[in-house]
Design a protein that fits this description.
The chain is mostly helical. Helices cover about 60% and strands about 5% of the residues. The chain has a 3-stranded antiparallel β-sheet. The radius of gyration is 22 Å and the shape is globular. Bound molecules: coenzyme A. Coenzyme A binds next to helix 10.
């Protein structure tokens, strides 16, 4: 019989090892961020890498009850009191290209822009302009840029890039995102790098695959969603969320249906 293979956890009656590390040692000496890094990247992070991943997790955990993931979770918690886990799942289900998942497409965009600049022996700024022009012609939005609330600057980005620069971990990922930011300002309009764009740049520089852009956001946001669901349970009666809705359909139809 063929076996089902995994290289993450080896668990038996007298041992639990995560990527070869005894979980009891990890419980004594590692942080949760170390574990997230180890689970997804096969080694324990350096102190500087831990700081950066921690900063991403803190910056992504919650953006207010109105963010799609938090709002959906609270609505589900409001209507279905029996299943907090369903409310958490409802929040996670809103995460995609437009909300929280743009990090993955941004990581793919960074890799493609870098590869194109090297292949064509063209400066990064020039390649970034081509990429932006093509996105504009195709009427597509560049993942990792723009924000509904932080229309000019997302303050979390400077913190993340500052930490990456200080620790010497900022590399091609940050350079490409900055080049795209300049090209977007020149060719479209000034748009802020958003948290997904910033985490994408850093995760590229830490050697993670594109999928990690969305996965790390999901890990962080579940902490925020969980608090939102708890607050809904503790503070509100069921079915108390009222969203202003305006009907703009056809007026009442006379005569019934024949
Ligand atoms: C986040 C987002 C939905 C905000 O959209 P918004 O509130 O409509 O943005 P603004 O009002 O500032 O700007 C609208 C115009 O700016 C331009 N624009 C905004 N974001 C853009 C982007 N990422 N790439 C290219 N052009 C963009 C477009 O010309 C847009 O006009 P359109 O609606 O006619 O297409 C949008 O910027 C976006 O889709 N970004 C990419 C996805 C992303 O990174 N999501 C994570 C968000 S944290």
């Amino acid at each position: 019989m063929e076996t089902w293979r995994t290289a993450i956890v080896d668990a038996g009656p007298d041992h639990i090892r995560v990527r070869g590390h005894d979980v009891l040692d990890l419980m004594r000496g590692a942080t949760f961020t170390d574990l997230i890094f180890l689970l997804h990247h096969q080694r324990v992070p350096t102190a500087a890498e831990r700081r950066l991943i921690d900063a991403i997790l803190v910056g992504s955990a919650d953006h207010g009850a109105g963010a799609p993931s938090c709002a959906a979770a609270r609505l589900a918690a409001s209507g279905n009191r029996q299943s907090p886990s369903a409310a958490i799942a409802a929040g996670v289900l809103t995460i995609g290209d437009e909300h929280g998942g743009a990090g993955s497409s941004c990581m793919a965009l960074i890799a493609a822009t870098l590869e194109r600049s090297r292949r064509d022996e063209r400066a990064l700024d020039e390649t970034a302009r081509l990429v932006v022009d093509e996105a504009r012609a195709a009427k597509t939005r560049l993942p990792g840029f723009g924000h509904r609330v932080h229309a000019t600057i997302d303050p979390r980005v400077d913190v993340l890039f500052g930490l990456a620069e200080e620790s010497g971990l900022a590399g091609d990922g940050v350079r490409v995102v900055r080049a795209l930011e300049r090209a977007i300002a020149e060719r479209i309009k000034p748009l802020p790098i958003n948290i997904d764009g910033a985490l994408a740049a850093i995760l590229v520089d830490l050697g993670f695959p594109p999928l990690m852009g969305m996965l790390l956001f999901v890990i962080a946001r579940v902490a925020g969603i969980s608090a939102e669901v708890l607050e809904e349970h503790l503070r509100e009666k069921p079915m108390r969320i009222r969203i202003p809705v305006e009907y703009d359909g056809v007026p009442p139809v006379d005569g019934g249906v024949s």
